[in-house]
Specification:
The chain is α+β, with helices and mostly antiparallel strands and 406 residues long. The chain is built from 15 helices and 16 strands. The longest helix has 41 residues.
């Protein structure tokens, strides 16, 4: 009976109910869309910071990342490969050798960082291959090929097809040097564009007199936000002397940026739903005021105050369910639409570098279950909380005084 009464009472004043329902639907749909945009911006920024150099996680000798010591290297081993392959959260791993030296072309010379990689494996970890601005990515069959950052290529005045001379310190105390053939130029709008060069791993091992040695394994995770948990699990399985570092340890400023994004999303949720809650409170308070005489008659006929209170809560719950279904449905459609298409703002906004990552000039959403569940559950909670005061007032009515009220 209470359910039937609640459903009937909701539509006694259709205009007021529809206005409140519309506000709830719009607020929940916009909140779902906003959370999706926040997730898209965070994903873009995290990807630009990790997938354009480090990867989501690194495995190297203890202390290597602090001073990049040439001799803190490790041997590529099947045992380590099996450990990395055995972690379900790891989707790919790329061995790397790093060298710092002097790169020359014609009469120009500049310091550079050479990263020796296996091209096919590096493709699975970083996105350099997706940012080729000229030429081609590092080919597998060219021993001394090189892919340069756009800034470094501009300073050297080189283009695909040109030759470079590289000088560096070798591990045996000699001066390592050789010619490089420029196959391509990448542009990522990051600091790596000014100094980074990708070369073949076997070629760099030969130049540095470090056969079968690497400095690190760059790792890609299925979910980079779970990098800390994955690092803790992996640390317990690594051979002695090796350590795993997640992106939060390598870029603490990025970790702070992610935390600030979470706070920003929380503030948006609070502001939007406080306004929605005030609208719901007004609706139910006015409804209770209009039905004061009706409540008095119901209590005079034997309906206990607890049932009156439950009736108000049931009305709020039903209104919340209607708004939840419509709002989540519209929010889901908007999120899916912007996930596939997005809005390009490159004509009006330039990329912004922040905390080691790049905020791209576009609005793109990412569909996450939490972005749907949080607005839906909070909407129901806001409805029930907003109904508390009107329900308490209705339950405290005295039947005789309520019947006499016009």
């Amino acid at each position: 009976m209470l359910f039937t009464l609640a459903l009937r009472n909701l539509w006694r004043n259709r205009r007021r109910t529809l206005l409140t329902l519309s506000a709830m639907v719009v607020s929940s749909a916009l909140l779902i869309l906003s959370l999706g945009i926040f997730s898209g911006m965070l994903q873009d920024m995290l990807a630009s910071a990790t997938e354009q150099y480090y990867g989501h996680m690194l495995v190297n000798r203890e202390g290597y990342q602090e001073d990049r010591d040439l001799y803190l290297n490790l041997s590529s081993s099947r045992a380590l490969d099996e450990v990395l392959a055995g972690e379900p959260g790891i989707t790919a791993a790329s061995p790397r050798l790093r060298s710092f030296g002097l790169l020359s072309h014609a009469d120009k010379s500049y310091p550079a960082e050479l990263l020796g990689v296996i091209p096919q494996q590096e493709r699975q970890v970083t996105t350099f291959a997706e940012h080729i601005a000229a030429g081609t990515y590092l080919p597998e069959n060219l021993e001394n090929g090189a892919v340069l950052g756009a800034g470094l290529a501009k300073k050297l005045g080189v283009k695909p097809g040109d030759e470079l001379v590289f000088l560096t310190q070798a591990a045996d105390g000699s001066i390592g040097n050789d010619l490089l053939y420029v196959t391509g130029i990448f542009k990522t709008d990051s600091s790596g564009d000014k100094s980074l060069v990708l070369v073949g791993l076997p070629w760099l091992q030969q130049v540095m007199a470090l056969p079968d040695k690497v400095h690190e394994y760059s790792i890609r995770l299925s979910d980079p936000r779970l990098a800390t948990e994955e690092r803790i699990r992996l640390d317990g399985r690594l051979p002695a002397g090796l350590e795993a570092l997640d992106w939060g340890m390598m870029m603490p400023e990025m970790r702070e940026a992610v935390a600030s994004y979470d706070v920003s999303r929380f503030i948006v949720v609070i502001i939007l739903y406080v306004a929605t809650g005030l609208g719901i409170l007004n609706t139910f308070y006015m409804s209770v005021m209009e039905r004061t005489r009706e409540f008095g008659i119901a209590m005079a006929l034997g309906m206990p105050p607890g049932h009156i209170r439950l009736l108000i809560f049931l009305e709020a719950f039903l209104l919340g369910i209607f708004a939840l279904v419509c709002g989540v449905g519209i929010g889901l459609l908007l999120t899916l639409s912007m996930q596939t298409q997005g809005i390009d703002l490159s004509s009006y906004v330039t990329p912004i570098t922040y905390a080691g990552g790049t905020i791209l000039p576009r609005l793109r959403t990412v569909l996450e279950i939490g972005n749907l569940l949080v607005p839906a559950l909070l909407l129901l909670l806001v409805c029930l909380v907003a109904a508390m005061l009107p329900a308490h007032r209705a339950a405290k009515l005295q039947p005789i005084e309520a019947i006499r009220e016009d």
